[in-house]
Known about the structure:
The two termini are 39 Å apart. The protein has one domain. The chain is mainly α.
Amino acid sequence: MLYHLLFPLHEQFAVFNVFRYITFRAAMAVVTAVLLSLLLGPGFIRLLRRWSVGQSIRDVGPERHQVKAGTPTMGGVLILFAVVLPTLLWANLTNPFVWLAIGVTLAFGAIGLVDDLLKLRFRRNLGLSAKVKFLLQIGVGLTAGSIILSLPPDFGFAGTVAMPFFKQAVYDLGLFYLPFVAIVLAGSSNAVNLTDGLDGLAIGATLIAAATYAIFTYIAGNSVVAGYLQVPYLRGVGEVAIFCAALVGASLGFLWFNSYPAEVFMGDVGSLAIGGAIGMVAVLSKQEIVLILVGGLFVIEALSVIAQVASFKLSGRRVLRMAPLHHHFELSGWAEPKIIVRFWIIAVLFALLSLSTLKLR
């Protein structure tokens, strides 16, 4: 919006030429998202309390979590607002990738919103069934994949996937590209959802992943840098860096209220939307495989649940005291803030490793 209003003025006033640069607009998106979160957060939390939108705690969860019962939830609505509005203000709205990122994020947010509302209605930590939730996520992923395949060839998308660590290693998946995109989005969304179990844990890891993908999308959209680093050049994808920057700012702002002890939880409306957003950005930058590293913490948390369930069904034994992994460390005696900070450190290390793939080719 601001880009379309102010950039045309650069012909009369040279100062407005700064709107040409993605880096400037990305920085402004971060600042805008942070300010929106900090300004609107207190009033939004009071509103949630007034409406008795409180978190329900699982009976099978750690006993110490019972003190969190009643803490306002559905704070993901604030995250979504702080992501979408700055993106609309600072991005080039003629860019289809920007709208894809926004659309997928809102679609996954809608799934989470329904899930949260059902939990509130029945006052239990049970919303949509896992099957229904997964089918809806797959549906959004298939739709997004279909839109990508319908883009003109000059955008650089043709149902291909780039492999990290190898020069010019790009493979055409053909019709398998659609289910591939759907699995990436659903897997990313559910992994973030599973990680959202401690105050600030998921949103801090999201901040790190979003900042990493801001770099990847900027590189993919810059023909000179993409050529030098030998990654696929995708015309126009650089604008998605502004969306990633807005997610960084929204994460920073929400962390102000979600840090231990949390004043508000993001709920599924936040975690599913964030996961969908990260997955979509990975697809748009053709760094889907690298998502395993960028979101390494999310992957570990998801794998811990899979391992726990598989072990119990096959042998009747649990490999962890409790899944996801952060609960295992809680029951092992670690203080919640220590788990959170140490997991953030792990997330940073994974992010740095993922960025190293740009040179290790």
